[in-house]
Write a structure and sequence with these properties.
The protein has 216 residues and is an alpha+beta fold. The chain contains six helices and eight strands. The chain has a two-stranded antiparallel ribbon with strand order 1-4. A two-stranded antiparallel sheet has the order 2-3. The longest helix has 52 residues.
Length: 216
């Protein structure tokens, strides 16, 4: 530490970066000699290795990126019940008594669509990777399991509370989660490969039929 300070370097990490049972050590460092007035530093608890991940965020003048948002309908149980009740209380005479099928369908769709938007309005929701899936194979159940896995990781690695039993619980749960994640990914890609194969097969049949028509 004296050598670092004498050369103008400041140590920016002050928490343990490696924990094994009841042993804690700070052996991963970030040193800086810049004249910035403030830094944002920290240590991320992760199971990527037996050493935790250190990070530093240096102040910049770049504008902050826009928060990612998405539109989502509130398909709650109460909204669904109110929507069903609204549909059941309507009179569908103008839909059922018409002689024009297309006109009747247009009337039905207008009524249904207006009620749907009324009871399930679109709302802007900030994207949260803990609740919104980035990949299509990440199901809602996997997102919940991932949060539980991270919680068990923190418990097993937390200062002075990590015990062999908590680590064993985290290890077993993590192995189960990883197995389910690989299975979900495999099923997702297998399904999409089959869809592509069927499309290619149908395109091949269509192409051969077209060629035969051209010949005859």
């Amino acid at each position: 530490m004296d050598v670092n300070l004498s050369n103008g370097f400041v140590q920016l990490i002050c928490r343990a970066t490696r924990i094994q049972g009841q042993h804690f050590s700070l052996i991963d460092h970030i040193l800086a000699n810049s004249n910035h007035t403030s830094y944002t530093t920290g240590t991320l608890i992760s199971d990527l290795s037996d050493h935790f991940i250190n990070f530093i965020q240096i102040p910049t003048s770049k504008p902050k990126p826009k928060t990612k948002t998405e539109f989502k309908r509130q398909l709650t149980a109460d909204n669904i019940i109110r929507f069903k009740n609204a549909l059941s209380n309507l009179s569908w005479d103008e839909v059922c008594t018409g002689d024009d099928v297309d006109g009747s369908f247009d009337k039905f769709w207008t009524i249904f669509h207006d009620l749907y938007n009324l009871h399930f309005p679109k709302k802007v929701v900030k994207f949260n990777k803990n609740y919104h899936k980035i990949n299509n194979y990440m199901t809602t159940g996997l997102l919940v399991s991932r949060s539980k896995k991270l919680e068990l990781c923190k418990i097993s690695s937390k200062e002075r509370t990590g015990t062999p039993q908590s680590f064993e619980n985290y290890k077993k749960y993590g192995n189960t989660y990883n197995s389910l994640l690989r299975l979900s990914k495999k099923m997702y890609f297998d399904k999409n490969f089959e869809i592509v194969k069927k499309k290619q097969k149908n395109m091949g049949i269509f192409k051969r039929s077209y060629q035969l028509k051209q010949i005859y």
